[in-house]
């Protein structure tokens, strides 16, 4: 085995999802901002803020443009991150139901709040689904651009959410809105990977890789797989940087990632020619095959230790390959039970066979992404036409309970205790603060540390004492 000694393949995963909102029914107009504020009405009354941390360790806030946003707690595995992401869907649906009651008082009965887990609205504005990966600081950003971006650009073959655009059906919702491969900008010129250096961890050891080119997925399988496969690719890139042994991903460097992103999105076969650095040409399928082969070889090399790199690595590689084989054979329909763009295209084709009304097709497109009032995605699941990985009981658990293998456990437990007291308190990703008789602050710089230290235990005991005092009054 050629694994470099001392390489730690553990990684922290996170997903930040911006949701679109709208309202139907009732009497009178209501802006997206009013809908969003109605969703946060109870939270503002409780916390006097639209930016809060939850007992499951996650962050919930109202982002620019009236987009409710949910950032998952730190997760140690893609499956943990998936459960946290699904908890976010459940929380948004619950907030939408509460908003209906608030808005019914203003607009009359019959109002319905819609919450869209997608990436583009009717006016052509784009909003994001951002993936976060803890990356070893030794990996230079030019290596990320050369070796990771081609994988991200072409993984839309299985990770795209699908979009019914002006120019026809596309694989990706985000492809038309991305400008650069790697940049510190987020709005002026949207990059595929954002370089703003906020690791929320030891900055000498880590950077937080902020991937913003991905679509928001309804498919549980795709959410898990895009995290799992990206982790595998990052593990090989880190191993190459630390050990000096090349894995061949440098041969996939794209001449123009933006053009390649758009060309891939418009080609369901995966065979469109993409210009590579050095004047070569490859297809999206060719590029994905190269990454799959490298990851397959590395996992085989690790043998019994493969689970230390990624639990369920074989399952991820098998599913990844099945998607590439289906497209290579021209059978996209074989992906419709777990790939969002294929599932939605199947629905749209069935609708078109009954009624070619483009407005009905656009409503169906939106309905697929509606986590609060949509019917299409739920009907697919109920009829066994869409695969799932997490049952409803685990989702309910993830709504209230943080992942137990990262510092999110400490943050979530702190929030639960602090909310039960009358003390003034606050927290963020790395700090917990109680403002009692004396200010008491705990810093959580290690995202892998899930066990309380002496300082955290003292803070927790202070909250317990305050709860006991309140109960005795």
UniProtKB/TrEMBL annotation:
PANTHER family reported in the protein's UniProt record: PUP DEAMIDASE/DEPUPYLASE (PTHR42307), PUP--PROTEIN LIGASE (PTHR42307:SF3)
Native source organism of the sequence: Bifidobacterium [indicum] DSM 20214 = LMG 11587
One GO cellular component term noted in the UniProt record for this chain: proteasome complex
EC category: ligase
Keyword Zinc part of the UniProt annotation: no
Keyword Ligase on entry: yes
GO molecular function: ATP binding; ligase activity
Gene Ontology terms: biological process: modification-dependent protein catabolic process; proteasomal protein catabolic process; protein pupylation
Name the record gives this protein: Proteasome accessory factor PafA
Keyword terms: Ligase, Proteasome
EC number(s) on file: 6.3.2.-
